[in-house]
Amino acid sequence: MIDSLPESRLWEEVPECGACGWARWRAAGEVCGKRYARCEACGVVRLYDRVAGDQLHRLYSGYYPGADPSPDELRRQLDNPTFAHRRRRLEAAVPVDRRRIFEIGCGDGNFLAYLRGHGWRVHGSEYDADTAALVRRRHGIELFVGDVADAVPPGAPFKVAAAYHVLEHVYRPAEWLAAVRRMLGPGGTLHLQVPNQGSLTRRLTGPAWASVMFPQHVYFYTPRTLDALLRRAGFAPLATTTWDPWHGPGTVTGSLVNQARRIAGRGLPWSDPLAGAGERVDAVAFAGTAAAARPPRLARRMLDAASVRLARVEALAGAGAVVDVIARVA
What we know:
The chain contains 12 helices and 13 strands. By secondary structure, the chain is α/β, with parallel strands linked by helices. It has one domain (56-329): 3-Layer(aba) Sandwich (Rossmann fold). Strands 8-7-6-9-10-13-12 form a 7-stranded mixed sheet, sandwiched between helices. A 4-stranded antiparallel sheet has the order 2-3-4-11, with no helix packed on it. β9 (158-164), α7 and β10 (184-195) form a beta-alpha-beta unit. α10 packs across α12.
C-alpha cells in the first residue's frame, strides 16, 4: 500500500537535468507541493521532485483498461484523426521500401494496427506485460516488454522508430534517445510527439493545463528545446509542427474544463498525486475531467467546437498543443 511507505521512499529529488546533464537550475513553479526546475543550460522544464524510480509501477500498472472494446467501438478508435495525421507525416518522409516501424510505448496498439492496415510492417514495445497481452489479444501483435533503454529489442535495426506522448514520461531522455538511435539503421527515421510547454493554452491556463499530468509527466519540451536535444543525440530534425487534429482540440478542452473547476474551487485532477495513479489518464483524455464537471450537452458541443478553432489558431502561430518532429539519424 502507498500509505505504508514513507515520503522519502515514494519521491526523489533530482538536481541534474536528464536532457543535458547540467545541474544548475532555477525554480519553474510547483504542483501539489512538488517543484519544477528549468535547466539553466538547455532550458528544458522538468519535475525536480518526482516519483522514485523504483516506485514507477505505482504509476503504470494497469495504465490501460483491460476490458476489450466492442467491434464498433474499436473501429471508432481506429478512425482517430491523429492516426491519419501521423501516417501522412511518416509517409512524406519514409519511402515505401522502408516502411517498417517500431513504436515505443505503443499502448493499446491501435496505431500499429492502423498502420498495418495501410501496408506497414509493425513492431512495438510496452513497459507493462499486461498491456502487451492486451495488444496481442486485440490485434495479434507481439510486443517487446520492457524499456528500450535497457535492452535492444529483437529485430533491430529498424527503418523507423516512433514514440507518441512517451518522451515526457522518460526520466533520462538523453540516454533514452541514445538507445533509440542504436535501434535504427543508417538513415533511420524517428517520429516523436510530446506536449508543447510553449503552447498558448499552457501559458493561459498554467497549472490547469491538461498536459501537466502530474506526476506521470516529468519532462516538458518546446520546439526549440526538443530540436536541441535531438541534435545532441545525433538526430537531424527534418519537419516540425505543433498541430495534431485530436490532441490539439482535446488539450484545449481539457485545460478549459480544468480551469473552470479550479475557479469554482473544485480543485485539479492531480490534486492527490498518487491515489489511483495507476488509472489511465491521457494528457488529452479530457472526457474524464469533463465528466467530473458535467457540462450540459449543448454547452459541451459549443466548447468542443470552440476548442477546434482555438487549437488551429494556436498551431498556426507555432504555439499548438504538441511538438511533432520527424528526424533522421545524422
